[in-house]
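Possible regression after last week's pipeline update?

I re-ran a chain I had predicted before the update to compare outputs. Posting the input and the new output here so someone can diff against the archived version. Not blocking, just want to make sure nothing changed silently.
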Amino acid sequence: MTDPSPPPDAADIMTVVHEGVGGIKLEPAEKREIWRFVQRELPYLWSQRTSYFILGSYRDPYLRRLRAVQNELSKQLGAYPFIMGDLLELPTDRLNTFDIMFSLLATYSDYIVGVFEKESGGEAPELGEIDDPPYFDKSSVFPRDYTWVTDANLDSKQHVIQAALEIAFADDLSENKVQSKVDSLIDRAQDSDLDIDEREVWNVIDHRTAEGEEPATYSWVHLNKFRKFELNERCFPWTTEDELRTLVDELPSPTPRPEWEERDDQ
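New output (post-update):
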């Protein structure tokens, strides 16, 4: 097999790689594998298409939601949405492969999209990577069932639905008690002039109970990171997959790059 040649901007790429591996010295064979990965995957990110790096859990049923986001973005002309789990891994036993791949893909992607439904798993450290420079400005998060902690906990439809889900999944409540408490919750929200439809709330509850999908819970650290994105208008809470698909449309639309922005080696 012919050894891959370093691309014209090899120095910049290796700076990203060395940050990913903590500055350790790479062996010649490892450098060759990195160049192969670069030649195989990065041309898609250097093309005229707008790239969306989708983060989240690869386990079922969470992967289904990542596919929903990927499929929704794929409908847009000029978009290249991708999931790192679909790419071939770097064949190296010594190096921290994930950090290298993540650093390269996150650096050269146009946008980063994080879908979160729980506080554990690989998506937790990913959240810690994208909430600061150099990735924060091009990242958006989609946390399921997220609401920021406020004193007025019925100040939005999302707060009401989240509170209703917590009631519906409480272990010590009978069906009649759940009905009474949720109805009372909706009445209080409507009395506060909050525009919320009773049927919409119950539709969410019925769907989630039928699927056995309990409300997502997050640590205080997660909530604060989501809040940072929220204050920058790049946090999109959701409760159902249909709602997630709709919210994906809030992401920046693909914008073809002028020819002069194309890489010379593409």
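Follow-up from reviewer: compared with the archived run. The chain has two domains: 10-146+216-253, 157-211. Marking as no regression found.
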